[in-house]
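Good morning,

Both structures are done.
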Amino acid sequence: MSPDAPRAPYADPAAGAAVKAADRAHVFHSWSAQGLIDPLAVAGAEGAYFWDYGGNRYLDLTSGLVFTNIGYQHPVVVAAIQEQAGKLATFAPAFAIEARSEAARLIAERTPGDLDKIFFTNGGAEAVENAVRMARLHTGRHKVLSAYRSYHGATATAINLTGDPRRWASDTGSAGVVRFWAPFLYRSPFYARTEAEECARALQHLEDTLAFEGPATVAAVVLETIPGTAGIMTPPPGYLAGVREICDRHGIVFVLDEVMAGFGRTGKWFAADHHDVVPDLMTFAKGVNSGYVPLGGVAINAEIAATFDTRPYPGGLTYSGHPLACAAAVATIEVMEDEKIVEGAAYLGEHVLGPGLRELAERHPSVGEVRGLGAFWALELVRDRETREPLVPYNATGEANAPMAAFGAACRKNGLWPFINMNRTHVVPACNITEAEAKEGLAALDTALSVADEYTV
């Protein structure tokens, strides 16, 4: 534990019990069987840590849901929200408001290429909804292609585009959504042996899918620049540029979903910057203001924006560009510049997390692969390194998921709050976590991985 780390306040179990009782009586939680969950009552948070009412403190390797890119309770952002609340707490989206205009300007300055117009939403799913609507209206086409092993949100279109099991219960087979396989060399659907082979075969697969769907019927290809919840699979060199070329050739809008990967998470402002690729539309949320007030949006290129110069855009939200959210975004971006948080995330990935995780992999047979960059990493946990059999089956629940449950319990016992999805644990701390805190997290992971090792063959 870092000696400079924030300390938990005194314990207050009675207050915690009251919070828990009210939650269980009235709060309906997302993605959960309500009678089977036991939410932790959180008393406070600061920096990379949070604590409960029992005085137990946890190093948060989840960044909330991968959104507290500058950590919890950054005083500059908190003060900006307070100041904006005193000045103009809310106002309708049809007006020009200083905080909204400044947030849009600062975001547009950092997005690649000519993505200079910003449509604000309340979060990432709504951003994806509106990006797809813009693409369909701009092209006059309806079909949209998205990848398996992806997540785009829980609203109607976004969940239908999603390529993981959270889609299944809500998948009405909406007309026009077609999925394809994006590259993932460790579990290649193309029997590739090298990144170059995986790239070439994945691009050919996309070409073939378009050929059979009819390129002239496709409005957009939607990809997470680096898939987040689905596994942090960084695309091989040349893949995104290849998708860009395919879209250009067929008049298809290229949409990159940067909701999770954007705003410093990968060691650059946007993950697309690693590949020198400019999409036509880019969705964002989460890290834009570290999640302090809900905010998302679509960055729009000049050509698509011009479609709606004299034609009304048929979409909007009551809280689009909410002043408190935008003030938080302005302050967050300024903090990221002043404290060099993007550069810090790059250093963290190259010199601390990357080497540290690879060293853990050498000693733990349960680690099949380490992948990531910046403050955006995943460990693929396996039963057998030779066969690459996952530590638990795909979408496992109950007893089938026991190995990952045991791993998670071991993390929490050692003061670490893990991000676990299927057979993976993701290492996605605040981008400004200190080197000492990161090493604290690696040490706790080391202990927990010994538990996962017990399930290997």
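Second structure follows.
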Amino acid sequence: MTACAIEGGTAGAATAADPGPETAGPGPDGPGEAEETGGRGGPGGVGEPVGAGEAGGAGGRAPGAPLAPGAPTAPDVLTLTADGAYGARLTAAPVPPGGQRAWYPERWTLDGPEPYAVPLPLNQPEEPDAQVVPLADGRVLIRRRVADRQMFSLLYPTGPATGELALGAVECEGMVLLPPSPDGRSVYGLTAGDHSSLLWLVAGGSFGPELVAEVPGHCSGGVWLDRAGRMLALDRRPAGGGPVKAVAVDLERNGEVTPLLQIAPASDDRLLLADPDSGLLLIRSNAPGHDRLGWGVLGSCLPVRFPECLRPADGAVTPFAVQPGQMLMPESCAVALWVDGPAGSWVGIWRPQGRRLHQFAAPEGWSAGAGFWTRDGVLHLPYATPSTPCGVALLDAPGDEEPPPEPGGTADGGHGTEPSAAAAPPAVCKPVPLGQAPLHRVASTD
């Protein structure tokens, strides 16, 4: 997708093609109105609507905050496989009086009739900056930093003990593991430099960690665009500086890089989430003049839209899951959002066609930003409490009624589009010509 402007903004009218934290007040359909719907299960009032000042307690990294390569990953963050069947995290053992906190990996099984956790401790505790990623076969990849090397192993339960299969090492000071590949067996790591970034296949290869691509510029992020684990989106800043633009990397073409987002020439355009079934893209961009959360459709010629309801005044919003199985219906996909504010963290649910942010208290002990949808619109939120060390709260996606028209018409002069920014003469922005980009074929066959 190459977007060349935004809807109703100051950068022109956005289009889309195949590739190649707010302080303003809430909109009329924003968090000032609590939505009512039936939620299911979970402690801490999950499923209950919340207003601007109510939230379920949860910790975690601030939404939208970039994770620098090599930066320690916060313990207790739960990483899920692409299908939500397994999860993995570092968790702390009970601390004896006068003792030090010891961390160990833990695998969660979430696709059975009852969720359960399996501890995977070894002979010595892990460092809190280790990263763990679950695989579809139930094993857990762990990345450890040892001096100037990144060490990789697969962990798995063997009766009362933990088995470990060493995979090898990469000599570099810092590396970030990307979200689990949709194929369930591959894990990639990213080492970012000022002039180029290296993409490594650290699990799923034939001979240990393998260098698969070198991408010019400083890269971050990591979003999968297809279900085969071939097309990966990265947020890239050019060598020597400049705006951040999302690009698509084709892993079957030796890391061929294709432009993905180009909303305005000088804007930072990052891809946060993508749904391969519908083509729905969740984007963060400062093209409207400041950072906004917006949405578009892969391969569409329609504008990228920045709904007012996705910028509540009392919290930062980050999407973390999209309802799958909505083929060719991106506007009907339910999107789960992590809303984080001074009062804590809670859950938001939004559909592009509804243009309304429904807000709910998170379950107590929720691993903020972790969760997955079923095809029929049930959101699974994993949580852990002293009484329930491994639990999943269920939340039904609420229905959306057509919001009433705003007094005085819409911000676009009555053309029926969502308000996104102050009206201004559009700037001319030429789309990037992509021709027959590889993502077009992937998107059309998924």
